[in-house]
Structure formats: C-alpha cells, structure tokens
Amino acid sequence: EPLSDDLPFVAGHDPELRPYFKLAAGIVLALLAAAAAATRRLTGGGRWPCYFFLIGCGGLALQLGLLGRWRSCFGDPVRTAVVVSSLLVVFQAVGAVLADRRRRLPPVAVRLAVLALAAAWTAAGLAWVPYGESSAVWAAAATALILAPSAIVSGLFFPVGLRAGGSERLGLSLFFDALGAAFGYALFIIFYQLWGFYSVLAAVGLCYT
Predict the structure, then answer these.
(1) Mean pLDDT for the stretch of residues 82-101
(2) What are the CA-CA distances from residue 47 to residues 60, 146, 169, 176 (Å)?
(3) N or C, which end of the chain is more exposed by having fewer CB within 10 Å?
(4) Those residues with Cβ within 8 angstroms of residue 112's Cβ, 6 or more apart along the chain or in another chain
C-alpha cells in the first residue's frame, strides 16, 4: 500500500513488523475496552481512575493524530505544533467552561451522537487543511474552524468528571489522567502506523464513550 497523508509511516507497511503492530493494537483495544467496562460497572470512587485514564488517553491521542495530519502546514513542524497545540488548548478550555455547571455525564447515546458529529466535522475538514495558504492568519483561522468541534467536545469531560465524583480523589484522578496520556502516545504510534489517522480517531471515540 503506498504512503499517503493518512498512512505516512513506513513501519506499518513492513510485512515483518506488521504482525507485531497488530498484536500491540489488540492489546491496546482490550485494555481500553476493560477500562470502559469498569467505568460503567464500578460505583463510587472506584470508577474515576478508569474514567480519567480513558480521557487522558483519548485527549493525547487526538492531539497527536491532528498534529500528524497538519505536520508542516505552517512552514515547519515546530511552528505547526505550536499553532495546532495552542488552538486545541484554547478550544478545550472553551469546552471546560461549557461543562462548568454539569455534575454528571450525559447518557451514552448522547455522548456517542456528539462524538460522531465532532468526528465527522473533523474528518470532512481534513480535505481543507490549508497547506498551500500563503497567509498565516487565514491558515490559522481555517485550522481553528476544523479543530474547534473535536477540541471543545474533548474539553467537556475533565471538569464533568471532577464534579461528578473525581474531585474526591483529585491526586489519583490527575495521576490516572497522566497515565492515560502516556498510553495515548502508544495508541497513536501503533494505530497511526497500521491504519492511519482515522483509526486513531475511532480509538479516541472509544475512550470518550
């Protein structure tokens, strides 16, 4: 299969390495499914480590996946990483403000619908990533428009989790959020190498459901 924007890495195409990547992907999916099941079935304080692990994983995997698609859009990888990461932080903060008064998560069906809409917007917008735009202002505006829905949705989950019960064990919640972020890095590397950006986006959806 030829390299492309969606599948830019050589290792995922290597027939000798691909079985190992697939095994690792299966392990990642099994752990995410177990954490998601524990989040739904456990009660009280026991569910929140799993919850924050999942949103930490999903948040970083989403950020890295989007950075992978933008790459050198703003002239070089460092400047692009700064612009895209800054926009993500800003819109995640907007999501946190919107979630400020919620004390529990909406039903799973509602979360799935919102996630699907945000993912569809982002996926459609990838065709309009402003690689050839000479104006940095217009390129940043187009990037913001594409990123906003997914970033806002991802920003909703942390404050809602804290208000719903995670604040009772704030240190533990933050620890598992960071642990999930480290796991999200592994998720990004494995899935992006194998199946490209859209597989990362699907795994992020599993984290947030």
Answers:
(1) 91
(2) 21, 33, 11, 11
(3) N
(4) 205, 209
